[in-house]
C-alpha cells in the first residue's frame, strides 16, 4: 500500500468559456469538479496503475464533503463528475482509499477558467483552511498507523495555515523510523526543512531547486540538495525531461519529442511513476522511463491532470534514458 | 408577510484579486458567499426594512445546503460570511424565513472576480439545475399555503431548466385567486407569458421593455405593456430613475445626483422599495421615492447588493418625483 499525504487538499473546479473577456459576464459550461492538490493527483495516478493507494491529509466544511464524494467516485469508474463530452480521459481510475482527517475549517477551492479560443487557463486559488494543533495530532496518530502497512509514502504540496514549517520533516522522520521509503515534493522553506530529515527522494523542478540551492545549473543544484540531506534527487526540467542524481549514478531521461498540451499535473504523474517504480523494484532507468511516459501522457490528455493510457503505453518504450557523469558539487574554475 | 419567489436561486461567490490577468494564476481573497438570485436579494432588503419575509424557490445539492446556511445567518446579524474588512455594509439585515423547496439537482453558483485595480467585476454564471414536474408540484402546494397569509408576492428572475415557460403566469393566477398583490420581475418569454395573467406590477428595465414591446421609448413601451396585461409598470431606467405608468397616473422619479458605485442589486432594491411601499399603503410618489433611495443606497454601498442605510435615509428626502402627462399608447404621427 502506498500513502499519499496532501496537507492542503483542494476541490478543483473547472469551467469552460468560449472566450474569456475580463469585466463581462460569462455563462459557463457545467463545472468539472475533482479532488485536487498534488498528493491527490499522485494518488489518482497510482491507483490507475493498479497500486493500492491511501490518501490522507485534511478535509473540512462543505467543500471538503464534496471533495470526499468525488474521491469516492473514482473507484466507481469516473475520473471527474459533471464532465461533458470529451473531458473524461482514458484513465480507468482505480479507487483511492480515503483517510483524510476531518477539520473544522473549510477545504479550499481552485477555480480554473479554460478559454476555448486559446486553450489557456486562468486560475483563481483560495488559501487553505487553518489546521489546529489538535487536528495535526489526530493526523499524526492516523499516519503512524498507516505507515505500519505501507510500502512507500509521498508527501506533496504546500502546508496550510496553522501547520509548523517543519511538518514535512516530522513526517519524514516518522516514515524513516517505520522503515518506509519517503518521497518529498514541496517547495520553499518546507522543502529546506524537509531535507534535513533525509527523505529518500525529492522531485523539485528547476525553479524550486534554484530557490533551494542558489544554483541554476541542474546537476550542480541536485548534488547540493543531496549534500543537504536528500538521498536522491529527480529534478523535473520540463521539455528537458528529468535529471536523476542518486547514490547509484546519474541519469537524464528525455521524452521522445516535444509535446504540446496541458502540463497541469504532469509533475504529479512523474511522482507517481517514480514511486510506483520504486515499490515494484524497478532500477533507476526503469523508474525514470515510467515517470517520463506518465508525465508526457498527462500533457497529451484532453482533461487537465488525467493521463492518456494508450499514449503512456506507447511512450514507455520510446523514452531515452542516458547515464551521465557525476558533477562535482563545486563548480570547476574555468579561467 | 411578503413572499419572494426565486426559481433559479444561486450561491453568489465573490473573490477579490489585486489585478485580473487572463491566463495566469491568482491567489484570491477569502470568498464572500451569499444567497443570490433576484428574489433572494429582494427578500434581504425587505427584511432589512423590517418586513416579515418568506423566501421560496428551489435549493438542492451541496451548494443548496450552503445557500440555506447563509440565508439562516442573515437573521443572526451577518449580511455575508467570509467577508474581510470593509465588505459588510450597514444593512442590519433582518431574518428571512426559508421556505425553499428541496430538489435533487444542485443549486447553481455565480463566481464574481472583483479587480481591485479597476473596481470592475468579471462574472462566471453556472446554469441552473433541472427542476422536475414533481418538484414543481411540491413547490405549488407550499406556495398556495404561503399565499393564505401573504400581503404581497414578488416573482423574480429567470426560470431554471425543466420549468414550463408559463410558470410565472401560473403563480400570478394563484396569487390573484388568493387576492394577493403580485409583482413580476423577469424578462423574455416568461415576462411575455406572465403579462397575460395580469400581474399588479412589473419592473422591467428599458432593454427588457424594448424586447417585450419593440419600442425604445419608455413611456410608449410601458403603455404597451399595460395594454398587454400589466396593471402598472415601473420601468427602471438606470441614471434616469424610474418611470411609473399606472391607472392612477404617471410619475418620473429621479435620484438627486448621478451616482458612482456598483449597480449590482440596485434593481432588486427598487423592487423591495416598491413592494414594501405597496404593503404599507404608501401612494405612488412615496413608493417611487423609496425605490429610488434604496436603489441609490445600493449603488453606494461597498459590497455588491447590500445597501447603505444612512445613505438611504438621507436620500429618501431628496428624490424628485414628478407627475408626467399620460402618453398615447400609439405614437403620434410627426410628419
Topology record:
2 copies of one chain form a homodimer.
Chain A: E1 2-6, E2 10-17, E3 25-27, E4 32-36, H1 38-48, E5 53-60, H2 61-74, E6 96-103, E7 108-115, E8 121-125, H3 133-147, E9 152-156, H4 167-177, E10 182-185, H5 188-195, E11 201-202, H6 206-213, H7 218-227, E12 233-236, E13 242-246, E14 249-254, H8 266-279, H9 284-300, H10 309-316, E15 320-324
Parallel strand pairs in A: 1-5, 1-9, 2-7, 5-6, 9-10, 10-11
Antiparallel strand pairs in A: 2-4, 7-8, 12-13, 13-14, 14-15
Helix pairs in contact in A: 1-8, 4-5, 6-7, 8-9, 9-10
> What name is given to the CATH topology of the largest domain in chain A?
UDP-N-acetylmuramoyl-L-alanine:D-glutamate ligase
What is the count of DSSP helices of chain A, taking H or I runs of 4+ residues? 10
CATH superfamily of the largest domain in chain A: Ribokinase
Cα distance, first to last residue of chain A? 53 Å
**Sheet bearing the most strands of chain A, described?**
6 strands, parallel
SSE series of chain A? EEEEHEHEEEHEHEHEHHEEEHHHE
- What's the overall average pLDDT of chain A, rounded? 91
CATH architecture of the largest domain in chain A: 3-Layer(aba) Sandwich
The class by helix and strand makeup of chain A works out as alpha/beta
Radius of gyration of chain A: 19 Å
Uncertain stretches of 5 or more adjacent residues of chain A: 78-92, 329-335
